[in-house]
Amino acid sequence: MIDFGPSAKSIVAIALCALCSLLPAQVLAANSEAQHPQISIETKYIKVSVTVDIALKPFPELFASCFSEGKVWFNKKNSDAAAEWRDNRKAFRDLQWFYERDYALRSVVGRYISVMRGDTWFDGGAHPNQHVDTIVWDNVARKRTNVRSFFSETTNNGPTMTTLAQLTKIAVAAAKLANGINGYGGDDGLSAERMTPEQELQRDTFINEGIKPKILGLGPLTLAPSTETGKSSGLTFHYSPYGVGPYVEGPYTVFVPWTKFQQYLLPQGAALFGGERPKDDKEAR
């Protein structure tokens, strides 16, 4: 059964009409009582769903972009699983595969909207998997963007990217030590309680390989909320399992305050930042 959650009146109705060609007509349905716009299907061998946060409805182009991307992803997962079921049924081992994707609003700072895109799935491996990515949307240009325009220079391995990469690596190393995890391949006998983030970083190849000093090598990021209305308190980096450590460590979310990189900001970039990270944001992420 495939189910679509409520349309946002005319906005979502238009988006649905424009995008419905991506799905076979027989799988389209409307459910006005659902709390989130959603596409879903469930059969004896697979469940697939896409959810777009209703908080994105005030931004129709962004909402439609997420919805469109989600439909393409939905169709591919559904099609691939159907082919596998047809050609290699033993791969399912009497287990139902599942794929879930959701888009969630993270923050609105000036013209920029940060969105979390989370995927969770199981397709016959040793365990379920998860992956997080992010979208930074320019609501004036009406398109996806990145933070390049915030900074005076963003050359690969240049001053800004090197500083941001180092700050982020240190934040991940500190998070690992806080979790009692220290060093891969270290032989000095130091415990997590006795190590500094800098020492952890020297020996943790996962962090150093997972974060690079270039705009697309820093990792998925969002603008963090702030105690100051309309501002961001800094950048939050979101790493999936395997991103900066082995699967058993799980995901990492780390924060770099804007005051740590303010010297590299252009005036229009500096105007976006201020205040501190709210306590509830620290607890939630």
Structure description:
It is a single chain. The chain is built from seven helices and nine strands, in the order H-E-E-H-E-E-E-E-H-H-H-E-E-E-H-H. The protein is of the alpha+beta class and 285 residues long. The chain has two domains: 9-145, 2-Layer Sandwich (Heat Shock Protein 90), CATH 3.30.565.40; 148-284, Heat-shock cognate protein, ATPase (Actin, Chain A, domain 4, Alpha-Beta Complex), CATH 3.90.640. The protein has a six-stranded mixed β-sheet, with helices on one face. Strands 7-8-9 form a three-stranded antiparallel β-sheet, covered by helices on one side. Helix 1 (9-19) crosses helix 2 (60-87) and helix 3 (159-178) packs across helix 4. The longest helix is centred in the N-terminal third of the chain and has 28 residues, at 60-87. The two termini are 34 Å apart. Mean pLDDT is 86; it is low at 1-34.
CATH level 3 topology of the largest domain? Heat Shock Protein 90
Distance between the termini: 34 Å
The ordered H/E elements are HEEHEEEEHHHEEEHH
Name of the CATH homologous superfamily of the largest domain? Fervidobacterium nodosum Rt17-B1 like
Helicity, as a percent range: 25-40%
Q: Tally the structural domains.
A: 2
Main CATH class of the largest domain: Alpha Beta
Shape, per Cα inertia axes: globular
The strand count comes to 9
Order of strands across the biggest sheet? 1-2-3-4-5-6
Class derived from helix and strand content: alpha+beta
Give the low-confidence spans: 1-34
Query: Beta-sheet strand percentage?
Result: 15-25%
Largest sheet: 6 strands, mixed
Q: How many helical elements? A: 7
Q: What is the residue-mean pLDDT, rounded to a whole number?
A: 86
CATH architecture descriptor of the largest domain: 2-Layer Sandwich
Radius of gyration, CA atoms, in whole angstroms: 21 Å
